[in-house]
Specification:
This protein has about 425 residues and is an alpha+beta fold. The chain has 18 helices and 11 strands. Strand 7 and strand 8 form a beta hairpin.
């Protein structure tokens, strides 16, 4: 007898007969994310725990590496076939949801997600046109990490100011050698752009990009100052140039021999980035040190953002259930313990408490200290998601490389980049 006929018979006979349980299909959700094997395993374990609590729910997972994730997601969003729950990068919001309608408004699911666990600032950064487009999983920002062994060897104290940082370069070169540098700025991401932006915010207290005017805010003199600081850092042997880094091919900054050998005194990188510390050979190590400041500066100009977020597809047929899944992963002790630190130090206050109680998270960890530095230095000028736009970044890195190779003068660099990049801004904003 099929299920439909059995149900009908039970209804007719009523309480006079004890009817057997009737099987039914589970409600299915799709979830996508990027990451490595450890993140995949942790997320899969958390999802299994959710399914155990909700036996009538089946989560179809779509994990992948970083490469190709954005391309696939772009196709899905364009075709209205996106997953119910998606791991999203912060700068993608302005690409897919300028008016806030690219993703489901999670404010509508406040009964199913305890949003009080997340900072107001974190939620504001993922809000588009008043609509909460995601739940920030963790925060990250640029921190200063130092190799104390090398600075002791050079006999130089950690620099507190930009002037002291510039003065450290010649000392490293003279005392330690040509291939020793105080710092490195990775050339594969926004590190150079955001580090120079810190200097400019400290000095002028203005953002680089005006989102309303879709234009840069700097005058020509300020562009000369901006790129002039890069020139000072390179000329004074504070950082290796992009020309120098390109000599190592496509190797990441933490993979080049001078870094592995402990010949570079520190790095300006994400507070959540453990790759630089993890690749160093003993006795070299990293610790959080001072962020360079200009005298009298009221804003450090530090670049901070949600490391990533979980969003709900605007076409999801089960937004309530998707919200419950996100809440389980970020706020439920079982989900928290399974996820661990695979997406950085959690923003959820409940997650922090649970992981501290379990000894997974403590203040001695360099990522925790780096995040504390970010929290302390965050100013009023919010970071721009356009710093991570692939087109704008490509123009920037190309211009700086051409300068390093002598194809552009400083004056030409200060003129050419904003002119060309302006056309990109008009197109993408």
């Amino acid at each position: 007898m099929n299920n439909k006929r059995l149900k009908a018979l039970c209804w007719v006979l009523g309480a006079g007969i004890l009817c057997p349980a009737v099987g039914h299909s589970a409600t299915e959700l799709r979830m996508s994310w990027w990451g490595g094997n450890q993140r995949h395993q942790a997320t899969t374990e958390a999802i299994k725990a959710f399914e155990a609590q909700n036996p009538d729910v089946k989560i179809n997972t779509e994990p992948s590496g970083w490469d190709g994730y954005l391309s696939r997601l772009s196709t899905q969003l364009a075709g209205n076939t996106e997953p119910d729950v998606m791991q999203i990068n912060w700068n993608w919001l302005v690409m897919f949801s300028k008016n806030g309608d690219g993703f489901y408004d999670i404010n509508r699911q406040s009964a199913n997600i305890d949003l009080s666990q997340f900072s107001s600032q974190g939620k504001q950064l993922v809000t588009m046109n008043g609509k909460l487009n995601g739940v920030p999983v963790a925060m990250t920002g640029r921190s200063m990490y130092y190799n104390p062994e090398l600075w002791k060897k050079a006999g130089v104290a950690y620099p507190q100011t930009w002037e002291q940082m510039i003065a450290a370069g010649p000392v490293f070169k003279t005392k330690l050698g040509e291939d020793y540098y105080p710092f490195i700025l990775a050339n594969h991401d926004t590190t150079i752009m955001t580090f120079l932006n810190s200097y400019m915010v400290q000095k002028y207290n203005i953002p680089m990009i005006d989102p309303q005017k879709k234009d840069f805010t700097y005058t020509r003199e300020q562009w000369l100052d901006y790129f002039g600081m890069y020139k000072k850092l390179v000329d004074n042997h504070v950082i290796p140039s992009m020309k120098y880094l390109s000599s190592f091919g496509k190797a990441n900054a933490w993979e080049i021999k001078p870094w592995l050998d402990g010949k570079i005194g520190g790095v300006h990188t994400w507070s959540t980035d453990g790759t630089f510390a993890g690749s160093l050979r003993a006795p070299a190590r990293l610790e959080v040190g001072p962020y360079p400041m200009l005298p009298g500066a009221t804003d450090a100009g530090i670049f901070f953002k949600p490391a990533m977020m979980f969003s709900i597809g605007k076409n999801s047929k089960h937004p309530e259930l998707a919200a419950k899944l996100i809440n389980f992963l970020l706020n439920d002790p079982q989900g928290i313990k399974a996820m661990g630190l695979q997406r950085g130090v959690p923003l959820s206050a409940e997650a922090v408490k649970v992981l501290q109680q379990d000894g997974v998270l403590d203040n001695s960890q360099i990522q925790v200290q780096g995040l504390a530095q970010v929290d302390q230095l965050m100013g009023k000028i919010e970071p721009s998601p356009w710093f991570e736009n692939p087109q704008l970044l490509s123009w920037f890195l190309d211009a700086v490389q051409r300068y390093d190779y002598g194809q552009l003068t400083l004056e030409q660099l200060a003129d050419e980049f904003p002119q060309r990049a302006q056309r990109v801004l008009k197109k993408i904003m």
